[in-house]
């Protein structure tokens, strides 16, 4: 009789809360910072104020990146601050390969720096 009641209780388990937010930090492996924004009524002025909550989310496969809209769910604590896990990625943000851009920018900077050094002595001789 206790087995059937235990099975029935597990099937009647309450659904865990799910939240949709935006990933703002993806530097740490398997951990994401997700910002959840909401409106709250100010107690004194009775106006709605935008508030935000930062959640630390467990992302096992490092699937999400900054700017993605994700759905997270409450779970057992993975660490002191990490008590949510990634359920799915709702929409992906446009990703830019910054390593290519950084290489181009540094080469452009070196080129302009070399041109300035070469141009400056000729301007001094022309002015004298």
Approximately how much beta-strand content do the residues carry?
35-45%
Can you tell me the residue ranges where pLDDT is under 50 for at least 5 consecutive residues? none
Helix content: 25-40%
Strand order of the largest sheet: 1-2-3-5-4
Please describe the biggest sheet, giving its number of strands, its sense, and whether it closes into a barrel. 5 strands, mixed, barrel
**CATH class bucket of the largest domain:** Mainly Beta
- Report the total helices: 2
Count up the domains: 2
Radius of gyration, in angstroms, nearest whole number: 26 Å
Structural class: alpha+beta
Number of strands: 5
Write down the CATH topology of the largest domain. OB fold (Dihydrolipoamide Acetyltransferase, E2P)
CATH-defined architecture of the largest domain: Beta Barrel
Order of helices and strands: HEEEEEH
Described by the principal axes of the CA atoms, the overall outline is elongated
Structure report:
The structure is a single chain. By secondary structure, this protein is of the alpha+beta class. The chain has two domains: 2-94, OB fold (Dihydrolipoamide Acetyltransferase, E2P) (Beta Barrel), CATH 2.40.50.140; 96-128. Helices cover 31% and strands 36% of the residues. It has two helices and five strands, in the order αβββββα. The protein has helices at 2-11, 98-127, and strands at 18-25, 31-41, 48-58, 69-74, 82-91. The chain has a five-stranded mixed barrel. Strand 1 (18-25) and strand 2 (31-41) form a beta hairpin. The longest helix is centred in the last third of the chain and has 30 residues, at 98-127. It is elongated, with a radius of gyration of 26 Å. The model has no long low-confidence stretch (mean pLDDT 83).
